Amino acid sequence: MEIILHCGAHRCATTSFQNYLSRNENTLAEQGLVYWGPERTRANGLNSLNKLTPDVCDALRRDLDACRRAGAKQLLVSQENFVGSMERNIAFASLYPSMHERSLLLAKAFDEGVGKLALNIRALDMYWSSVSAYKFKRGSEPIEPAKWKRITQSKRSWRNVIAEMGRAFPGVPLLVLPFEDFAGHQRAQLEALTGRAAPEDNDGLSLNAAPHPAPHGLNADQAMKLWSDYADDLEWLASGADGLAELVCRTERDTRGVIPAEPRLEQRKST
Q: How far apart are CA 257 and CA 29, in angstroms?
C-alpha cells in the first residue's frame, strides 16, 4: 500500500481539496484509495506531532495494517497542520519555522513507510495576506506594521520548507503544487498525487475564503519583495530543487517541471 502525505499548506486551497476528497470518499474507496482527513488524524493522535507517544505510533501501525488487510492500494492522508500552524508563523514572523523537527516526527510516526509527499505552495505576498485576513476574520489582532517588516525581511521562504521536508524523507518523492495552478482544480490535483483517474463530482470547490483584507497589510514594496522571493522559489524548483522535490504544474497535457505562468489576478485574491 502506497502512503501519500499531503501536508497543506494553510491558505493554499487545502480545505477545498479535503472537502472534495470527503465528498468522493466512497467512490475513491471502491477504487482502492483510502482517504484520511483532519478528523481522522485528530482521532489517531497525529495532529500534535510534538506529543507523539509509543502508544500513538503503535495505534497508527495497527490502523495502517487494517487498511492493508482491507485491500487498500493507496492511502492519502491530508493534514495541513503537519507543517505547523499559522499562529506560530505569525508569532515568529517566519514561514513554518519548525518544519525540520516536524518532518522528522512525521517520518517517525509513519515508521519510514511513506511512499510520496505533497505540498501546495502560494505566492508569499498572497499567502501572508490570506493568513492575516483569515486570522483577523476569526477575532485575532491584525498584524502590526513592525511585524510585517520582519516578515518581509525574513530569509525563510518555501525553498527552506521544502528542503527541510525533503531531507527528512530521503528518497521519497516530494511533489510541490502551486496554488496558482491547482486552486479550484481538485480533480487534477488528486490525479497528480495518485496517478489514477479522479472523480469529476464536486470538482471546482472554493471554500474557507477570507474575503476582507485585515488592517495594516503589506505595502507595495513589501508585497513586491515577497513576490520576488516566491519567483526565486519557483526557479529553484523548476531547476530541479537540488534533487529534493519536483514541481508539478497543471497544463493541458499534465506535464511537470515547468514554471507556472504569471498567476491571473482572480487567482491571486486573498482566499
A: 30
The C-alpha atoms of residue 35 and residue 4 are separated, in whole angstroms, by 10
Residue boundaries of the structural domains of the chain: 2-268
Half-sphere exposure at residue 60, Cβ-oriented, CA atoms within 13 angstroms: 27
Let me know: does 145 contact 33? Beta carbons within 8 Å.
no
Rg of the chain over Cα atoms, rounded to whole angstroms, equals 18
Burial of 265 (0-12, 13-18, 19+ CB in 10 A): exposed
Q: How many Å apart are CA 267 and CA 29, to the nearest integer?
A: 31
The set of cell numbers assigned to 68 is: 492493508
How do residues 84-110 score in pLDDT, each as one tens digit?
999 999 999 999 999 999 999 999 999
Q: Which bin fits 113, alpha (ψ -120 to 50), beta or left (φ > 0)?
A: alpha
pTM over 0.85: yes
Grid cell for residue 30: 471502491
Nearest to 218 by CA among 144, 269, 271, 157: 144
The full DSSP string for 203-245 is -S---S---SPPSS---HHHHHHHHHHHHHHHHHHHTTGGGT-
Cis peptide before 9 (omega within 30 of 0): yes
Give the closest residue to 47 by CA, choosing from 87, 115, 102.
102
CB-neighbour burial class of residue 209 (10 A; exposed 0-12, middle 13-18, buried 19+): middle
CATH class of 2-268: alpha beta
Q: What is the pLDDT of residues 136-190, one digit of tens each?
A: 888 888 999 999 999 999 999 999 999 999 999 999 999 999 999 999 999 999 9
